[in-house]
Design a protein that fits this description.
It is found in: Cytoplasm. It catalyses: UDP-N-acetyl-alpha-D-muramoyl-L-alanine + D-glutamate + ATP = UDP-N-acetyl-alpha-D-muramoyl-L-alanyl-D-glutamate + ADP + phosphate + H(+). This is UDP-N-acetylmuramoylalanine--D-glutamate ligase. The structure is a single chain. This protein is of the alpha/beta class. It has 16 helices and 17 strands.
């Protein structure tokens, strides 16, 4: 437990205050634990009526649990309301009427109030996890004590309670987390890219972009904002930060044999520009980058059978991510796509992959959105399941082809998450002859 948390406890700053935590996910429960330690009265609310007291873990019998549709009465007495990532505040507006905006915070915002170590935060529509993990590996291999978390791994509130102090806090941060941040301030902020995403959550692209830019709003000239060159049209002339701004793009500065594609050359450059602010030498970075391997479900080679390479890119939940994956190969690609639609320009995507894609194998949801436009440019088939789509494309593939799962959608039509979808792809590939 860190020094500032102990001071809050000793000075009884939150003792007796009513805190309401919305959502019983990992981040929400971490926030509830922290608030309980700080002395607040904690109420946890969740729309899911199947959530039971056992979900509260060590807070069972201490925190109040309310399930079912949210009501004004659940929030009316709150001194603070903390939102788990993925809980859309906009949709809760009717029950939050009259509650000051300053009382609404995200789990990330709450935790950041207690952090003393410098924060390095990464956001973007695609590539966040790879870049965040690469940054952490470079820092660790150069001898720094690092905490890595936020939108991946351990919530920041949990770090405060349970983990040894780190020299540098490295966070992946999503628009969900940032939307309810006002005071969160990293020392280095990285914005990798921006494309249509999460339009099932955000009202429109403007709201999505505004949420991303909360990352930079409290930064000063002592801080650095690293922005990808593709963001110039969006950000030029826009006042969104007081930080020192630097732009980056893909380079061949480092040898990264396991990170394929131009987008990963950008990610590598972003990682270098970020870590050098913490005293890492180019030689130290080069060694860590050379050894770094892609994370599961991110342009992950599975196996080559009968001259056909099978690649799992289940994490690609947007059209931009799928296009970047296609461009990572100098071989004909048979791309597998389908799931829950999140938005994007299918016609632009088709133009961007023309000449590189031999066929499109659709599966599951979004056929009505993808097939009409893609069918004008490519041979398109549809199967109900991913396994059937894999088998069909395997039967049609020629030696030298790549069968690439890069769905450009979320997985929730048939799977719990993208990892389960990726695992199903691997299972289907393992069952192929050859």
């Amino acid at each position: 437990m860190n020094r500032i948390v102990r001071n809050f406890i000793n000075e009884a700053i939150l003792t007796g205050k009513q805190a309401v935590v919305v959502g019983t996910g990992k981040s929400g429960l971490a926030a509830a634990r922290l608030l309980d330690v700080l002395g607040a009265k904690v109420r946890v609310v969740d729309r899911d009526e199947t959530v039971g007291e056992e979900k509260l873990g060590p807070l069972k019998g201490k925190a109040e649990l309310v399930t079912g549709p949210h009501e004004k009465a659940h929030f009316a007495d709150a001194d603070m309301i903390v939102f788990s990532p993925g809980v859309p505040v906009r949709k809760l507006a009717p029950v939050l009427e009259g509650i000051p905006a300053r009382n609404l915070v995200s789990e990330l915002e709450l935790a950041s109030w207690f952090i003393e170590a410098p924060i390095l935060a990464v956001t973007g529509s695609n590539g966040k996890t790879t870049t965040t993990t690469l940054i952490s590996e470079i820092l660790e291999k150069s001898g720094r004590r690092v905490f890595t978390g936020g939108n991946i791994g351990v919530p920041l509130c949990e770090y405060l309670l349970d983990m040894e102090p780190a020299e540098i806090i490295v966070l992946e941060v999503s628009s969900f987390q940032l939307q309810n941040c006002r005071l969160f301030k990293p020392h280095v902020g990285v914005f990798l890219n921006f494309s249509a995403n999460h339009l099932d959550y955000h009202e429109d692209l403007d709201e999505y972009l505004d949420a991303k830019l909360h990352l930079f709003s409290r930064m000063t000239l002592d801080d650095t904002a690293l922005l990808h060159e593709s963001l110039h049209p969006l950000l030029d002339g826009r006042t969104f930060t007081g930080a020192h701004i630097e732009w980056f793009g893909p380079t061949s500065r480092f040898e990264a044999p396991h990170l394929l594609g131009e987008h990963n050359r950008s990610n590598v450059e972003a990682a270098w520009q970020a870590v050098k602010r913490f005293g890492v030498s180019e030689e130290q970075a080069a060694e860590a980058i050379r050894a770094f391997r892609p994370l599961p479900h991110r342009i992950e080679p599975v196996v080559e059978k009968n001259g056909v390479l099978y690649v799992n890119d289940s994490k690609a939940t947007t059209l931009d991510a799928a296009e970047a994956a296609v461009h990572a190969f100098e071989r004909p690609v048979r791309i597998l796509m389908g799931g829950v639609w999140k938005g994007g320009d299918v016609a632009k995507f088709a133009q961007g992959i023309e000449g590189r894609v031999a066929a499109v194998g659709l599966f599951g949801g979004s056929r009505d959105i993808l097939e009409p436009e893609l069918g004008r440019h490519f041979s398109v088939t549809w199967d109900e399941t991913l396994e059937a789509a894999v088998r069909r494309q395997a039967s049609l593939a020629a030696p030298g082809d790549v069968v690439l799962l890069s769905p450009a959608t979320s997985s929730f039509d048939q799977y719990k998450n993208m990892a389960e979808r990726g695992a199903d792809f691997k299972r289907a590939v393992e069952g192929l002859d050859g």
